[in-house]
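Progress note, project year one: complex with succinic acid.
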Amino acid sequence: MNVIVVGSGIAGLTAALHAADAGHRTTLVTKDALGGGCTPLAQGGVAGVYGPDDSPALHASDTLAAGAGWSDPAAVDILVHDGSARIAELIARGVAFDRDANGMLLLGREAAHTHARIVHAGGDATGAAISRALVAKVWSSSIEVIEHALLVDLLAHDGSVRGIRILRGGACTEIHADAVILATGGAGRLFAHTTNPPGATGDGIAAALRAGAMVADLEFVQFHPTVLDAGEPFLISEAVRGEGAALIDDEGRRFVFEVHADGELAPRDVVARAVARQAASQGSPVRLDATMIGASRLAERFPTIDRVTRERGFDWSREPIPVTPAAHYLMGGVVTDLDGRTSVPGLFAAGEVARTGVHGANRLASNSLLEAAVFGARAADAVTSSLFRSRIMPVSAVLSGGIRDLNVVGFSRSALQHLMWDHVGLLRTRTGIAEALETIRAWRAAAPAPTTRTEHEDADLLLVAEAMASAALARTESVGAHHLELEPALIGA
Ligand code: SIN
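Model obtained:
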């Protein structure tokens, strides 16, 4: 069979290697250079290695609790049970996870995990180590690699996806296949502040929407609470708080304890909202105090963060550093069954582009690399056995709606990112979401047909923004990462 995998993060690399191992003629198409995307930036590790007092059942229960009742228990069960095989596979493919003097894997703990079960590589360079190892395997395999190619659309024939259209070097070309696995990542670039790289423009979700695939849970966007608030967004891993670092206000108070008994290790959305509110009320960034961890431990355990914070003029072993929340991960996406099949025959999805049901309304830290490896492998394995047997019923995307005669500012990517940050971000109101939706619809209606890479990305961002704002408006109660503030008009009523 001919299989196309789009995307070269951990999900795409895993899917392509599995497809090639199964004997499929496999083409890996990637937007930038092979091994780009979010995976190499991932500092936090891979959850799923269990010490004597831990188990897959406990990991499942933490995952379900973080998902706020919105996860699919069957998908979570697969995550925690397939996880150890995928971690073993990563090790076999050359990923050197950190070990103690006896050669045992070092286990870290992160927010909302009841146990230390997270493995890292290079201290805080886990994603880079994974990406390097898997990219090397791809280059030495039979997989055909097409780099610097933007996914423009999925090709459909008789109701099935049968290939892709790409934009490469200014020209559009078609590649035909028996199955397409989307592993294009998320859409963090919808927001003014994000940990995601420039390529995270929602291309896969947009292409799936245009192909009529079912997409769900787009209202659930995870904001990371601790991104260095100096220069380009740079993640300060949750593992730093796992090691004991404290979030403090301008008087040195650990303010997160006022909203949650677990303080800095409360669920990520709780901490992110506390940080945003505190920063707004004091009119300056809150700070992360890691001084108690000590200079040598900080340098040894977090070499990347240590280097970057120092490059930006901070000695975090001696002074607290300013942090802010930023858009980090999209829980929703293209709906799949437990084997990566979408609602459209021939189309599969894995990784952040997919909504497998694992993360529910809020993702547990360090579950994303694991989910991408587990479901990337399952999608590739399912291609052979059941190409045209999707168990998901297609629904047409709900993207219509009247456009009022609006006097809105003209579209620019930056204007969209600020609109989304202000109204479809961490703290939402229904009025704000509705206004944002109208503006997005007006921008979409006025947008010319895209021809360049930037124009295609803008069109994709607008389409995903409309779907996301629609989903956020449809969810009338706060749940997980979707948080509605009291409307200003109702305060004091
Ligand atoms: C982090 O290192 O804080 C991020 C880990 C994750 O997003 O799972």
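Confidence is low (pLDDT under 50) at residues 393-407.
The longest strand covers residues 321-330.
No further modelling is planned for this target in the current period.
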